[in-house]
Amino acid sequence: MPKLELDEELVRKLSGLLDETGLTEIEYEGGGHRIRVVRGGTVLAAAPAPAAPPQVAAPAPADGAPADAVPANAVTSPMVGTAYCAPEPGAPAFVSVGDTVKEGQTLLIIEAMKVMNQIPSPKAGKVSQILVQDGQPVEYGEPLLIIE
């Protein structure tokens, strides 16, 4: 088994995420290794990632669409973070259902690691649905809103 070179910067970032989110444990897997950081203890483990378990296909919904399909025309999250619909608390939302938006117009903000990231509209159109609430945690690839 090859010797693992510990990425101290990654460990520091993971530790910072623990402090920022109030979590007590975080695990990261990449490059064939897994790093687990636990707050309140002295556990720091790095081990080869286990082989992926066999994937079992989930039954598709009755309408024939895949279970985790992203709606058509959805703007998805480019990162993990917290979605905010307005530039600051109490301010009007960037967009509302029914608004017409231009390509590049800010739709919302995602805060990730204390950095506010503006999410621009990928195209011009009309906002038909907003799928997240203000202050909601979002995952990478999660649909945020739909532009027709």
Kindly summarize this structure in a few lines:
With 148 residues, this protein is mainly beta. Helices cover 9% and strands 36% of the residues.
Topology:
Elements (H helix, E strand, L loop, with lengths): L7 H14 L3 E6 L2 E6 L5 E5 L25 E3 L4 E4 L15 E2 L4 E7 L2 E6 L4 E6 L5 E3 L4 E5 L1
Antiparallel strand pairs: 1-2, 2-3, 4-11, 5-7, 5-10, 6-9, 7-8, 9-11
How many individual helices? 1
Residue runs with pLDDT of under 50 for 5 or more positions = 42-47, 52-60
The biggest beta sheet is recorded as: 4 strands, antiparallel
Order of secondary-structure elements: HEEEEEEEEEEE
* Helix and strand composition category: mainly beta
| Order of neighbouring strands in the sheet with most strands | 4-11-9-6
Number of domains: 2
Overall mean pLDDT = 78
Portion of residues in beta strands equals 35-45%
Measured between the Cα atoms of the first and last residue, the distance is 52 Å
According to CATH, the homologous superfamily of the largest domain is RNA polymerase II/Efflux pump adaptor protein, barrel-sandwich hybrid domain
The CATH C-level class name of the largest domain: Mainly Beta
Query: How many individual β-strands?
Result: 11
Please compute the radius of gyration using only Cα atoms.
Answer: 19 Å
Tell me the helix content: under 10%
CATH architecture of the largest domain: Beta Barrel
* CATH fold assignment of the largest domain: OB fold (Dihydrolipoamide Acetyltransferase, E2P)
Keywords:
148 residues, mainly beta, OB fold (Dihydrolipoamide Acetyltransferase, E2P), 2 domains, 4-stranded antiparallel β-sheet, 11 strands, 9% helix
